[in-house]
Design brief:
CATH topology: Rossmann fold
CATH superfamily: HUPs
Number of helices: 9
Helix content: 25-40%
Largest sheet: 5 strands, parallel
CATH class: Alpha Beta
Shape: globular
Strand order of the largest sheet: 3-2-1-4-5
Structural class: alpha/beta
Length: 293
């Protein structure tokens, strides 16, 4: 199974509150006798399929490494690159159905606008105030991931009506993800909220790459290497946040993708529009070119 600790240390990250994390882990131990544990082989689970490299590899790993039956969901949240994320999700939907016919289920597309259109531009302006700082200081769209995963939890719960019992949902946050809604502290907080809402303390919310209960704290290079070794065509995934027809290659998410390939020591077959920046870029680079599309 996957048990890897990378160079980054959880206690050094500004988006982790180690005291709070300990309290939350203690709470789960009291409530259910453990913090988290992987579901047994053959169990049904839910997972987000964004079309991005991390979510695609995560879903493949859940099936190949753990033998889990995966019910993915794809969120149409009004993202500017929706067409390309959807195209990637559709590609891997077909790929996984052929490769894992007994474990993979068609994804459900769910429309949930987040952030709300009524204040999205204002929120972008607010983000500009922190973007000159490294992403580790960025609160990103603060409610986006909580809304996405609460929606996923609700979808998973709804499958009871079809006789599918799901008790675990997976995210795919990696160790370098630096927004406050992408850390293990937030994952535990979300798990507490889900358990309280469902009145079920056996409900789990897990992100394998940052799950210290599994001995993990790894980055994108591990996903890249695992995908390469298991013949997952990750170059068909969509990481870029821009609405260019190919990955821009020079936004923060593209930068991280390219860095993952470099650190894995694997040639990146993904086509890019621009060269990779030598310094960490902002989401507003190539904004003028994007508007001309």
């Amino acid at each position: 199974m996957i048990n890897i600790e990378g160079e980054l240390k959880m206690e050094d990250k500004v988006n982790e509150d180690m005291d709070l994390l300990k309290s939350l882990d203690d709470l789960f131990t009291v409530k259910r006798g453990f913090v988290i544990k992987m579901p047994p082989k053959g169990e049904s689970v839910a997972a987000c399929l964004s079309g991005g490299m991390d979510s695609v590899t995560n879903i493949a790993m859940l099936m190949k490494e753990y033998g889990l039956k995966v019910y993915p969901f794809f969120i149409n949240r009004g993202q500017s690159n929706y067409v390309y994320e959807k195209k990637a999700a559709d590609y891997f939907n077909s790929f996984f159905k052929e490769k894992f016919p007994d474990l993979y289920n068609d994804y459900l597309e769910i429309t949930v606008m987040t952030p709300g259109e009524e204040y999205k531009d204002l929120l972008r302006d607010a983000k500009r105030l922190v973007d000159p700082l490294p992403l580790r200081h960025n609160v990103s769209y603060p409610s986006r991931n909580p809304i996405i995963f609460l929606t996923g939890m609700e979808y998973a719960y709804s499958l009871k009506a079809k006789g599918v019992e799901i008790k675990t949902m997976f995210a795919s946050y990696v160790s370098s993800d630096s927004s406050y809604h992408c850390g293990l502290t937030n994952t535990r907080l979300m798990n507490v909220l889900m358990c309280q809402i469902l009145n079920d303390w056996n409900w789990q919310f897990i992100s394998i790459p940052i799950e210290r209960e599994l001995g993990n704290f790894f980055d994108k290079d591990v996903y890249v290497k695992w995908g390469y070794e298991n013949n997952i065509p990750l170059h068909f995934s969509r990481t870029c946040v821009k609405h260019f027809d190919v990955e821009c290659g020079d936004c923060p998410t593209c930068w991280d993708r390219r860095r993952g390939y470099k650190e894995a020591g694997i040639d990146d077959p993904t086509p890019y529009k621009y060269e990779m920046s030598s310094e960490f870029p902002t989401y507003y680079d190539h904004e003028k070119e994007e508007q001309m599309q």
